Amino acid sequence: MRLLRIIPDGTTFRFVRFRRYSYPISAFMSLATIALLLWHGLNFGIDFKGGTLIEMQAKAGAPNTAHVREVADRLGFGEAEVQEFGNAGGISLRFALQPGGEAAQTLVVQKTRAAFQGEYDFPRVESVGPRVSGELVQTGTLGVVLSVVAVLIYLWFRFEMQLAVAAIIGTLHDIMLTMGFFVITRAEFNLTSIAAILTIVGYSLNETVVVFDRTRELMRRYKKMSTEELLDLSVNSTLSRTAMTATSAFLSILALVIFGGRAIEGFAAVMLFGVVVCTYSAVFISSPILIYLGLRDGVAIEADDESSAKAATRP
Amino acid sequence: MLRFSRWYVAFIIVLCVGAVLLALSNFLPRQTADALRLPRFVLGLDLQGGSHILLAVDTLALRKDRQEALRDDVRRVFTEQPRIGYTGLAIQNDAVQVRVRDVAQIETARTRLQQLTQPVNSALSFGNATRENELAEPEQGFFVLRMTEAGFVERVRLAVDQSIEIVRRRVDQLGTTEPSITRQGRDRILVQVPGLQDPQALKSLLGQTAKLTFRLVDTSVSPEQVAQGRPPPDSELLDAYNGDTGRAVVEKRVIVSGEDLIDAQPGFDQRTNEAIVSFRFNVNGSRRFAAVTQENVGRPFAIVLDNKVISAPVIREPILGGSGQISGSFTPKSANELSILLRAGALPAPLSIVEERTVGPGLGKDSIEAGKIATYVATIFVVCFMFITYGLFGLFANIALIVHVGMIFALLSLLSATLTLPGIAGIVLTIGTAVDSNVLIYERMREEAKSGNSLVSTLEAGFNRAFATIIDSNSTMAIAALILLFLGSGPVRGFAVVFLLGILTTVVTAVTMTRMMIALWYRMSRPKTLPF
Fold first, then answer.
1. Contact, B456 vs B1, CB < 8 A?
2. Which fold has domain A51-128?
3. Which residues of B touch A102 (CB under 8 A)?
4. Is B169 helix (H, G, I), strand (E, B) or coil?
5. Reduced to 3 states, what is the DSSP secondary structure of residue A40?
6. Are A227 and A291 a contacting pair, CB within 8 Å?
7. Which of B499, B519, B208, B503 shows the shortest CA–CA distance to B393?
8. The domain at A16-43+133-313 falls in which architecture?
9. Cα Rg for chain B, rounded, in angstroms?
10. CB 3.0-4.6 Å disulfide test: which of A54, B15, B128, B212 passes with B258?
11. Among all residues of chain B, which has the CA nearest to that of A212?
12. Are B303 and B214 contacting, i.e. CB atoms less than 8 angstroms apart?
């Protein structure tokens, strides 16, 4: 049986050179994301903005969107965002955070239920008060920052500082582009989005660390090799693994996007994007940075010692 | 490295089979599993449907309450015999202040005020009891009593504990299955009721403090007069509980409060056919109520719930039996609600609903269905992909993958963890990433094979060299997952749990199981080259 091989044996693509293109492209995309973030902002869900989300399901037939909008606007909670979803009579109502603290939000739920109880079921009702949404913003931001710092510390212990910094730059790049994905697609940014970003942080580092593990190993084996050659060799020799893992992760998440259902497809779509970006950045962003960070500086002597020690023990 | 003792092989097989069986036991019918006392994971509210309501204890109201109580305490200790003349007793800047008139009494006043700075609950917190109040004397004869921050934190803790108990009693009255009531953070209570579709009744039960008091009506002034001017110092103007008419000026002194109730039941008045709540006092309450009604025949008294007057009937005769009934334009529903509230007791401070999430059972079922399909499809994708890439070794990896998913479910069951919709996403995601360890090992083997080593050393080198990389790459993922676990809440936390368990089990299955399978294969067929 002839087996599939995504990456042909003996590939020697000069990845590091490609930075002439990848860096401007990534820099542009990152800057564009920042500009869009400032310009447009994220489409925050009620987790972070507070407010009420009510999903309704018509008991029979199709929902009467115009009627729902009219009734909802007359409830006196400001203009409701009304959207149809699915193809089985689903309709969602979204009210902004009401002034007047916690009790005011409870009233929104109560009145809306009362107004539509006759014709609709309520598969999902979510209401988040101002206090909780504020806290969720805090813990969400804290989570992302903390994970980056924690991983930086871990990498610093396990690798040389340069490698740790390069890995983190790659990860920040991935976080940035993921934010760009949120801004451009107008996908709702909520609690699961934070989970998606943290998962992407994990995955991004996973990809990078495998390449850097090899870089470190090769660095000790080939002491005379130029940094550029060394990095190209590291990326090439781990390339088939990178491709394999990216493909299997991509396939499983694709299943989630297609079949996972409405409640999870947003999360899955972000993850799918994340896998692509992380794979790209591990190869084209994190590794080439090491050229600028001076890979051999300061570690050469230490590396020498270790490799000679290893050479002595190996027959 | 390819040598495994018989016992070790047996151990791993038993472990894997056990894990898979335990995972499968979750799909047995509920009764069978319970009868066998099998541990099982719990479905999150987003999957089984139900209500999630996050309550916050109103700490501002609690602070105000404590300050007023402290002010009343100061008044009480100063009016004890011999009385101490004082002036300017007031709450100012979150503290109670008072000035002693007579210089000769300052020493006595200080001693009495010091009684009020005793620890909150010296009996409960052994040794390190927190002092609730601090006494200061900024100038001779002028005292300031301030609640300490530690004392207040302790009060909040007690209030949350008490509230949890009362919330539990109230929720139990709804007759729902397995409600869960837990403390969250410093001043929050999370109520989760599986299967509850419309939490309106629950919310209205939780939204009331239910502080019931019986007090005399102050007949010296009319509500209209008070509305324009000031009430007498020991009385206050209270709104009506139902509707706009029925405001009353009520004495601040409480005859009997809800704490003295031993029972409350909804019912109907025989004559008027009106919905009522009948109640019974304990001995203490009956005695006090009897005494007051004896002295005040002909005067009205007010039944006050949460500072609103339910009704203010006139005392026609002394009420000696310790039981009575409350009427006041109740519907049968509201009479039932009030009796539930009275039986459960009053909350120490008002609770507000800061977050509500309700999922209908239909949506939950759909999510489970979708999650299942996504899991199957992802498994098929990955299994096929691994097989067409690595052939026999891909098959080994696939067996490890199936055991890996089984182990996640087994661990979820052992921990009685909650499986949420994001948790299902986590399982699908780990299906994609679990084979990563195998890929690392196999790719390493392929490289080793190219350098012309024998097959045995190729296999061994593949495992040994890939191992450090596997640990590094999984550790970074684990760090991100751990942070998510600590900071996330509800469904997101469910994702973090699954993701973390997935990382742990993949190291076990991909490294140990695959190695064992490859070792057995090598021993049995003695191949000369890698099969991929």
1. no
2. Alpha-Beta Plaits (3.30.70)
3. 56, 352-354
4. helix
5. coil
6. yes
7. B519
8. Up-down Bundle (1.20)
9. 34
10. B212
11. B469
12. yes
Determine the distance in angstroms separating the CA of A47 from the nearest CA of chain B, rounded to an integer. Answer: 9
Asked if B312 and B246 count as a contact pair (C-beta separation under 8 A), the reply is yes
Interface test with A, best of B186, B197, B202, B356 (most A CBs within 10 A): B356
Angle value at C-alpha B492, between B487 and B496, nearest 5 degrees: 75
Which residues in chain A are contacts of B529 at CB distance < 8 A?
Answer: none
Contact (CB, 8 A) for B129 and B121: yes
Q: Could you state, in order of their start, the residue ranges of all structural domains in chain A?
A: 16-43+133-313, 51-128
Over the Cα atoms of chain A, what is R_g?
A: 25
Helices within B139-181 (DSSP H only): 149-172
Q: How far apart are CA A94 and CA B216, in angstroms?
A: 48
Beta bridge partners of B87: B99
Compute φ and ψ for B355, nearest 5 degrees: -160, 140
B358 phi, psi to nearest 5 deg:
-125, 130
Q: Taken in order A184, A187, A189, A193, is the CA torsion positive or negative?
A: negative
| CA B408 – CA B20 distance, rounded (Å) | 9
**Residues near B112 by beta carbon (within 8 Å), at least 6 away in sequence:** B77, B78, B80, B84
Q: What is the DSSP letter of B349?
A: S
Helices (H), A222-282: 227-237, 239-259, 262-281
Q: Provide the terminal-to-terminal Cα distance of chain B, rounded to the nearest Å.
A: 21
Using CA atoms in the order B520, B521, B524, B526, what is the torsion angle rounded to 10 degrees? -120
For B195-213, b/e burial (b = at least 16 CB within 10 A) is: ebbebbebbebbbbbbbbb
Give me B294's structure tokens: 């004896």
Task: Decide: B403 and B16 in contact? Cβ < 8 Å.
Answer: yes
- The per-residue pLDDT string of chain A (315 residues; one tens digit each, 9 = 90 and over) reads 577 888 887 778 888 888 889 999 999 999 999 999 999 889 999 989 899 999 998 888 788 888 889 888 888 888 888 988 877 778 999 999 988 878 788 889 888 988 998 888 899 999 998 888 888 888 888 888 998 899 889 888 888 888 999 999 999 999 999 999 999 999 999 888 988 998 999 999 999 999 999 998 898 888 888 888 899 999 999 999 999 999 999 999 999 999 998 888 889 999 999 999 999 999 999 999 998 887 765 444 444 444 444 444 443
3-class DSSP state of A39: helix
Instruction: Pull the structure tokens for residue B139.
Output: 């100038």
Residue B66's alpha-carbon distances to A97, B98, B166, B238, B239, in angstroms, are: 32, 17, 20, 21, 23
Q: How far apart are alpha carbons A231 and A166 in whole angstroms? A: 13
H helices of B330-390, where? 332-344, 361-390
By the 10 Å C-beta count (0-12 exposed, 13-18 middle, 19+ buried), B5 is classed as exposed
B425 CB neighbours in chain A (<8 A) are: 256, 260, 264, 267-268
Residues 6+ apart with CB under 8 A from B384: none
Amino acid at B196: L
Tell me if A16-43+133-313 shares its fold with A51-128. no
